[in-house]
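In response to the reviewer comment on reproducibility (Comment 2.3), we provide here a single inverse folding case reported in full, input and output, so that an independent group could reproduce the run without further information from us. The structure tokens appear first.
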């Protein structure tokens, strides 16, 4: 009996890696920056994105607003005048809510507004946000030489003007948020936000119109956010 032939394996084409354009501070394009698929090419879960944003915003609330009830207001409990014979409305003490300076009915009290989201959900939402921004072509790169520019606001303003991004919410992701010339040149622009790579979060991504990664920031990103993925 002739031996049965083994089924041939179908060769699958390797998909090309993800990449974003990298710009010089002059606004000219200079090469590309490769992105890890594990973070920038995942299924987008919009419900999880909404949950992550809600948790983040709730956790920013201090919850320290506080008012005093009539029992907590300092003052006498003496009846301000007799019950009858004055022709005026009946009143008790001066701390009643009807009086200016009196207690507050149903006012705010200190409250914990914090919410929780588990680690896997947080990571998945984070990668979903990055994938969404990339699909919208709103993630770009910037050369590391830009960190050494002269500390002049006009240089960064001209860079954004050259790319037609003036007036838009821009976030620059730095390898480390420290005092350097680029930080000094950017901090006076109201729509520009600076954040170190390790502090990047889902809310900051979604709240930005454009996201710029410094070349060295992507190396920090891979080490910090993908260290558990590669294990």
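Designed residues, in position order:
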């Amino acid at each position: 009996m002739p031996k049965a032939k083994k089924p041939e394996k179908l060769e699958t084409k390797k998909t090309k890696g993800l990449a974003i354009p990298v710009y010089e501070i002059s606004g000219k394009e200079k090469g590309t920056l490769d992105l890890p698929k594990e973070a920038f090419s995942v299924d987008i879960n919009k419900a999880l994105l909404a949950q992550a944003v809600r948790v983040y915003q709730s956790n920013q609330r201090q919850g320290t607003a506080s008012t005093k009830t009539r029992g907590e207001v300092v003052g006498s409990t003496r009846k301000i005048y007799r019950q009858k014979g004055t022709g005026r409305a009946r009143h008790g003490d001066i701390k009643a809510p009807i009086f200016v300076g009196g207690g507050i009915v149903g006012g705010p009290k200190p409250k914990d507004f914090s919410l929780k989201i588990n680690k896997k959900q947080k990571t998945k939402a984070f990668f979903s946000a990055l994938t969404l921004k990339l699909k919208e072509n709103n993630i770009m790169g910037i050369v590391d030489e830009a960190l050494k520019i002269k500390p002049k606001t006009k240089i960064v303003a001209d860079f954004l003007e050259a790319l037609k991004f003036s007036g838009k919410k821009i976030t620059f992701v730095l390898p480390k948020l420290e005092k350097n010339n680029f930080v000094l040149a950017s901090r006076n622009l109201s729509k520009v936000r600076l954040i170190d790579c390790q502090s990047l979060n889902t809310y900051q991504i979604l709240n930005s119109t454009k996201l710029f990664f410094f070349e060295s920031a992507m190396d920090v990103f891979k080490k910090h956010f993908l260290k558990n993925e590669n294990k």
